[in-house]
Amino acid sequence: MKKKFLSFMLAVALVCSTQAFSTMPYVNAAETAGVGTAYYISSRNGDNGNSGTSEGEAWETLDKLENVTLGPGDSVLLESGSIFNGFIHLQNVGGTQENPISISSYGEGNKPVINCNGEGIWYQDYGKAMDNSGHRSSGYVSSAILLYDVDYVEISNLEITNKSNDFDYFSTNVNKASGRMDRTGVAGIAKDGGTMEHIYLDDLFIHDISGNLQDKHMNNGGIQMNVLKPADENATGIARYQDVKISNCYVKDVSRAGIVVGYTYQHDKFNGAALADETVKKYGHTNLVLEGNYVQNAGNDAIVAMYAYQPVIQNNVSDTAGVDLDDGYPGYWQSFCAAIWPWKCKDAVFQYNEAFDTVGEGNGDGQAWDIDWSDGTVYQYNYSHNNGGGAMLICLNEAYNGTFRYNLSQNDLKCLITFQGNPLAKIYNNVFYVGGDLETAVHHPAAGKRSGAGYLANNIFYNVSTNKNVSDDGWNPGNNKSFKNNLYYGYSDEGMPGLPEADAITADPKFENPGSAPVTVNEGGKIHDRSAFEGYKIADNSPAVNAGVYIPNNATEDFFGNKLTGIVPDIGIHETGIEESVSLNVYSDRYLIQEQDIRNVPQGTTAEDFLKNIKASAKAECKVMKGSEQVAPDTAVTEEMVLKVVNKANDQETKTYNIHVVKVYAEYATEGMTATAGSFQPNNTTEGNPSYVLDNNMNTIWHTAWSGCDRSEAWISIDMGKEQSVGMLKYVPRKAGGVNGLITEYEVSVSTNGTDWTKAATGSWENNSEIKYAEFPSVNARYVKLWAKDSKSQEAGKVFASAAEIRLGYEE
Fold first, then answer.
1. Distances from the Cα of 301 to the Cαs of 311, 529, 569, in angstroms?
2. Measured distance CA(63)–CA(58) in Å, rounded
3. Is 371 domain-assigned?
4. Does residue 674 sit in the same domain as residue 631?
5. Considering only CA atoms, which of 572, 513, 563 is closest in space to residue 545?
């Protein structure tokens, strides 16, 4: 932040110039020496005639702060047990990293209370259209504490309310709660100071915030921090947040949301499913931590992180989110909420959270967790129960590269997982328990909310309910979900749909005490100790022990904090640590291993580096061999070499893998290239035109005619504009919207004139949204054609082909 230490009068002038109005006590900063001054305020023992600089000389009311300028190291301390009617608004102030400004309490007793009562009104204006035209972008807001273009500020140990008296503002609309003024307990705004740094909120009790029910991106709820368009971005820099920590806060009975950080005017920089690290770090928020908070009876969402790079959301509890979702409110257009989730974040981690009793009635979502239009989201070590919409939602086409692992769902309602039109999500090593007389289905009953793609492995589906329900479409609606090494207990009863795995494990997993996880909030709204969930540990003789499938880039520990050992994990959330029997199978997070072939080893890789990327049983030894000789560590591997795996206890027991070295290719830029196709869907701005494979936009795709085409028409050709060496085609499948057109068997042909074609490569690709490559001997050509010899279709009898992007490359 560019520091601005302004007088009170100047701050008021600036606020009014942005259409805010107030008789409020703004606290403004000035340069001070030393470690700062403490200002004491007590409604019980204070007197405004005092100096305010010691406990014995405390002021009585908050408005005495009008005559104060704050500097680095200064603090405002409210006496415990005091009750204040008013608010504290800070604008253009800043402490330093060594000496932040603080607002907190002193003395013993209950937290000091700030009752805002609908005062503290200011004007919020994003200065730009929202990403959804239905969202309000400007209006008056009442906030008990406002942090407007401030940094290095820490606030702790306060109680805050902001109750509504609708007659003061809407005398004819008292019953229309969606027409209320927006209200907040603590509001944060970044606008004209560039990056706002170091905002810490800790141990606040915020309750009875009578805000608007539907204004999602206004500062409206318990704690909300957002980013507005600067008046002169060239001068002040991109507005954003860095180092925000909200911890140990109790937020109760608030409308709209509990804790939200932070919508931004830069939302249009986050288009597309795959979010570039540099984009998110430049335009979004960094070092965001939300931890140890208890949110009870939020009107809508409990906790949401938005537009952030690698935020950490952990050890939080959501209790009964969505209490304001009532279809009786006129004009309430968005009846959706989940408990704890991200929006447009990159690599967010949600761990050790608990969510329960999320309202399902009148709620289009109602899940505990939601991967929502974000890239690389990981949910791990979380516990959910009795959520009206179920455990997990993966929401729509930009919920990209999501992972849900080592989580426990006990008696969630409606359905276990909602696959709402999403690209491939990885769901592994979870436990889904359904008991009592619940009718919880595996998939959502609505067709559009079970259409997404998923990879489900090593999960335990445990259903002992007297009203079991898998759903009418069985286990794999959309035929775009794959199941491997899951355990299904209670799902093989007569009348239940067939299981999705031919050799499925259906035996009792031998939990210690299934269904015994806590169903009430822990003392103080804290998360439960892991020992509370030991009923879901498995016995040493469980059929789940060492029965899972290898997971690339897996977690490092299980739900209980046990280190993941060996190569093959146990099924479920508990890793017993029982030593697995010797296996000569190998795995890799970097290379593709198909039966006894190790592929995609980059040319020039040394034997030492190659072995570092091979994972094998601790009872086996791996060697790179050329003939009968072991290769030296610094020797580059070639296709003349093999990987030999030897049983350490019996060196006669071996297994050999072929090594396939890939050439290193450079991609041609797409400038000057054009594309044609045998079939395409016309007159559509996002799906159809073959030129979309060259536009560097993952949200547009080439797609053959929606009415279907002949298999001979399922091709696309790239004209490079000139004849040049080519030896590689990169195929980027569609990331969302279903599987129609995913190419699973291909033929690549080349031509110098676009008429006479020579076959260059044929092969098959897996049915998923991962990037694929076709390699062939380098040849001079101008045209390269990709023909879909086979492809996926969700409509019987119709042939489709599609691609998000295609690139051509040459051998370096």
1. 17, 25, 35
2. 13
3. no
4. no
5. 572
Find the angle CA(63)-CA(64)-CA(66) to the nearest 5 degrees.
75
Burial of residue 312, with CB atoms counted within 10 A of its CB: 0-12 exposed, 13-18 middle, 19 or more buried: middle
Same domain, 756 and 799: yes
Give pLDDT, residue 32. Answer: 37
Residues 657 and 686 in one domain: no
Mean pLDDT along residues 36-62: 97
Same-domain pairing of 93 and 219? yes
d(CA 802, CA 680): 9
Residue 287 domain-assigned (yes or no): no
Range of the domain at 609: 592-662
Residue type, 674: T
373 pLDDT higher than 60: yes
Is 398 contained in some domain? Answer: no
Q: Is 474 left (phi over 0), alpha (psi -120 to 50) or beta?
A: left
- Identify whether residues 656 and 677 lie together within a single domain: no
What integer best gives the mean pLDDT of the chain?
92
Catalytic residue among 182, 243, 372, 375: 372
Give the model's pLDDT for residue 2.
38
Q: Taking the complete model, does pTM exceed 0.90, yes or no? A: no
- Report the distance separating Cα 213 and Cα 727, nearest Å: 58
Both tokens assigned to 444: 């959502």
Q: Which of 7-21, 174-188, 419-433, 549-563 has the lowest mean pLDDT?
A: 7-21
Amino acid in the structure at residue 195: T
Is 365 considered catalytic here? yes
Continuous segment of H or E residues that includes residue 750: strand 743-751
Q: How confident is the model at residue 757 (pLDDT cuts 50, 70, 90)?
A: very high
Residues 658 and 753 in one domain: no
Q: Please check whether residue 339 lies inside any domain of the structure.
A: no
Helix (H) or strand (E) holding 744: strand 743-751
27 close to 63: Cβ distance less than 8 angstroms = no
pLDDT grade for 287, boundaries at 50, 70 and 90: very high
Domain co-membership, 658 together with 687 = no
As for how many domains the chain has, the answer is 3
Contact 186, 160 (CB under 8 A): yes
Residues 85 and 156 grouped into a single domain:
yes
Domain-ending residue, one of 616, 643, 662: 662
Quick one: pLDDT at residue 767? Answer: 84
CB of 718 closer than 8 Å to CB of 804: no
Measured CA angle at 451 (ends 447, 452), to 5 deg: 150
pLDDT: is 739 or 572 the higher one? Answer: 572
Give the separation between CA 126 and CA 268, rounded to whole angstroms: 13
Q: Which of 365, 375, 473, 570 is catalytic?
A: 365
Query: Which stretches of 663-709 are assigned E, i.e. beta strand?
Result: 665-667, 674-677, 687-688, 701-703
Summarize pLDDT for 121-144 with one digit per residue, the tens.
Answer: 999 999 999 999 889 999 999 999
Reply yes or no on whether the pLDDT at 471 is more than 90. no
Which CATH number do you get for residue 745?
2.60.120.260
Distance CA 366, CA 325 (A): 10
DSSP 214: S
